[in-house]
Specification:
This protein has 146 residues and is of the alpha+beta class. Helix content is 25%, strand content 25%.
Length: 146
């Protein structure tokens, strides 16, 4: 008996996606489709917080870089949420009072993705590759120790 496969037709535009409320865990947008990131587990969270803290401990006092976690980055026609986004000090978007702004619309200099056990390494590498092709200078993929 033949099985009919129906193509997905409920595509959404990037503009429509960006108007949606944020989700927990964060959702990402690519080619009309929305996918939700995996909820971080203990090892992932520890590595994410520890690494971003280490970067800021060394980068902030010397006004070199600043790391932010789970920051939405909209590049070209895609919206991603890397585990860690790092900005060179002179590129951190601030308001008139010198405070970092909420909606950052520029690409960070560097992104770091921590591979979750249930996430495909190929998908994560493709995400980093896309980011580099669209303005991000450096991308790291870190795999948790088993």
């Amino acid at each position: 008996m033949p099985i009919a496969i129906q193509a997905q037709t409920n595509l959404i535009s990037l503009k429509e996606f960006l108007e949606l409320p944020e989700t927990k865990p964060a959702s990402e947008y690519s080619n009309g489709h929305i996918s939700q990131k995996t909820m971080p587990q203990g090892k992932h969270s520890k590595l994410q917080v520890g690494l971003s803290g280490w970067i800021n401990l060394r980068g902030e006092p010397n006004c070199l870089v600043y790391a932010l976690t789970e920051l939405r980055c909209t590049l070209s026609e895609r919206s991603i949420v890397p585990d860690i986004a790092v900005f060179a000090w002179d590129r951190i978007p601030v308001d008139g009072a010198g405070e970092i702004i909420n909606k950052i619309t520029i690409a960070p200099n560097w992104i770091i993705e921590i591979l979750s056990p249930d996430r495909s390494p190929i998908q994560t590498i493709e995400k980093i590759s896309f980011a580099i092709k669209n303005g991000i200078k450096l991308g790291w993929l870190i795999a948790e120790e088993e």
